[in-house]
Design brief:
The chain is of the alpha/beta class. The protein has 10 helices and 15 strands. It has 2 domains: 55 residues, Arc Repressor Mutant, subunit A (Orthogonal Bundle); 184 residues, 3-Layer(aba) Sandwich (Rossmann fold). Helix 1 packs across helix 3. The N and C termini lie far apart (54 Å).
Length: 317
């Protein structure tokens, strides 16, 4: 790192703040040619500080994830498209888990027009997006709240999730390797994700294609344990073959031809403010004895209708 130029140091700082940098925007910012920026990015990649993507670079994988607010900027349009495509596959009158992640939050945003949903989540940001909607009942797992991202993690959250059996689970992953392993950085978060997978009838993975170029140290599951994979682009051949052999539905929300690499205009603006996520109005429904608000009336998409679900959950199943 000692050999980096001032410009390369600034590029690395921008990447750390926003998750990714684009050649064209950097060239304008520093008033140099695109070729010069590409050389800078290549040098930073050689130092294993960045990883090249089409048109730019992202912060390199390691043993720690990007800051949560920085991850919101990475593949933002792709995540929005993935969220809409995933939500379109969730029928009204169903129960579902939604776990931690900026992509799962986009799914939650796209679910706000649905009716008669029961959503169990360990993500305070998801709870804040959905709890105001009268036809969506929200249950928040209790436990320790991780300040960095509003995640509720730990054994209490895991045990509460184990008291439900839902129709769908919406999960994310920090990385997906070429053999189909779903990976993350925090073993406590992984334990919750594993409980979510085990207690859902159908599991939907939502992850953009940058996750295929990353690595993380903790294994969540194998892709063969999911039923649907919603991403932005077509999968690499090896991973596509695994999905096909396991009967996994793969949905490309932004197939080739869509302009998926257009960065947000504020990406390189060091003064861009990130709005805080308020969490004070969310009530964590947890007690030492795992007394939970009650159970769901089974969702219509698996046999029985649950119209007017809000307030009608007499005990967990």
């Amino acid at each position: 790192m000692a050999g980096l130029s001032h410009r390369q140091t600034e590029i690395l700082n921008i990447a750390r703040a926003f998750g990714r940098v684009m050649v064209e925007d950097l060239a304008k910012r520093f008033e140099v040619s695109a070729q010069t920026i590409r050389k800078d990015l290549n040098d930073l990649c050689d130092e294993r500080s960045l990883t090249r993507i089409h048109g730019g670079a992202i912060i390199a994988s390691g043993v720690e994830n990007l800051a949560y607010e920085a991850r919101r900027f990475v593949a933002a349009e792709e995540k929005k498209a993935i969220g809409a495509a995933a939500a379109a596959r969730i029928p009204n009158g169903c129960s579902l888990f939604i776990n931690i992640g900026t992509t799962t939050e986009e799914v939650a945003s796209a679910l706000t027009s649905h009716e008669d949903l029961l959503v169990i989540t360990n993500n305070l940001n998801v709870a804040m997006l959905l709890y105001r909607h009268p036809r969506i009942e929200v249950v928040v797992a209790g436990g320790t709240v991780r300040r960095a991202d509003g995640a509720v993690v730990g054994s209490t959250a895991t045990q509460l999730i184990g008291q439900f059996k839902v129709d769908y689970a919406i999960i994310g992953a920090s990385a997906i390797d070429e053999e189909g392993a779903l990976l993350d950085f925090d073993y406590r978060e992984v334990q919750v994700a594993q409980a979510i997978i085990a207690n859902a009838r159908s599991v939907m993975l939502v992850a953009d294609s940058t996750k295929l170029r990353r690595s993380a140290p903790v294994r969540i599951a194998h892709i063969s344990q999911i039923q649907t994979f919603v991403t932005d682009q077509e999968l690499p051949e090896r991973l596509a073959t695994i999905c096909h052999s396991k009967g996994i539905e793969v949905v490309a929300a932004m197939p080739k031809g869509a302009d998926a690499e257009e960065p947000p205009s504020e990406l390189l603006d060091s003064t861009a403010a990130v709005a805080p996520v308020p969490v004070s109005s969310v009530s964590l429904r947890s007690t030492p004895g795992l007394t939970t608000p009650t159970s769901i009336r089974r969702a219509g998409c698996f046999g029985r209708s649950s119209r007017n679900m809000a307030g009608r959950f007499p005990g967990p199943t």
